[in-house]
Amino acid sequence: IRQLLLGIDPLSTDHHPGYSLAVRTLGQFEVWRGCEQANPREWQREKARQLFQFFISNKGKWFTREQLTDQLWPNLDLDASNQNLKVALNALNRTLEPAREPGQTPFFIARQESLYGLNPAAQIFVDIDDFLSLAASDQDEELDTAVQIYRGDYLPDTITENWANEKREHLREIYLHTANQLADRHLQEGKCDEAMRICHEILAVDPCNEPAYRLLMRCHAARGNQAAVHAVYQRCANLLKEDLDVPPSSETSNLYRQLTE
């Protein structure tokens, strides 16, 4: 009905599985078929899971066989990579639609002539869509929800796949900016406990994040705890030396001196 009302081309789909998909990509990878979570063993093949992750990362785009095989099997010859793609597509479709009868056209993974991609008529909810929308807000509650959605790096199990690295870094930078912004607001409102909690979460993601150290020092200074200010600065200096071989920035050092005078 929705397709008819909106005039969406159903891509010659001859059935609907009766559910939407929900996908978690931040911190861990999980897929729900309606209310049922797909068991990791159902993927059968690692490349089937990676193929779906690639489609999710490029939602709204279409790819030729050659483009897909270049991403997932760059070191195989044409015949071997095409065969692997066929096997991975079959395994992927079985995972997303285990009740689909043989011969029925897959619904979630669509094909337009020689191009493959996610069916634009399918409802596929991805956590990064909510994260990006909420992180762009200026409301504390929505920023807090965005920070909660970010449970870790984007698709951490694809750390060796080049196609995911740029988006992973982009989402991490948005999280760090959003979390620092929210922690600063909490500090300005006198909510030191909330500000410090978020700072520690930031440092779990990026142990060398100087803005988070500066916020922690300000929180401790607001409570009159000079020893804690010194301890935070020393931790910052030590980690920057160990990991990056650099000293704290002038902004961090100047703040430390101001707070401890």
Q: Could you list some keywords that capture this structure?
A:
single chain, 261 residues, alpha+beta, four-stranded mixed beta sheet, three-stranded antiparallel beta sheet, 11 helices, 56% helix
Write the layout of secondary structure elements.
Elements: H1 2-6, E1 21-24, E2 30-33, E3 36-37, H2 46-57, E4 63-64, H3 65-72, H4 78-96, E5 109-112, E6 115-118, E7 124-126, H5 127-135, H6 140-149, H7 162-188, H8 192-205, H9 210-222, H10 226-244, H11 250-260
Helix pairs in contact: 2-4, 3-4, 5-6, 6-7, 7-8, 7-9, 8-9, 9-10, 9-11, 10-11
Order of strands, main sheet, comes to: 3-2-1-7
Q: Label the overall shape.
A: elongated
Q: From N to C, what is the helix and strand string?
A: HEEEHEHHEEEHHHHHHH
Q: What distance separates the N and C termini?
A: 69 Å
Alpha-beta content class: alpha+beta
Biggest pleated-sheet summary: 4 strands, mixed
Percent range of helical residues: 55-70%
Overall mean pLDDT score?
93
Per DSSP, the total helix count is 11
Low-confidence stretches: none
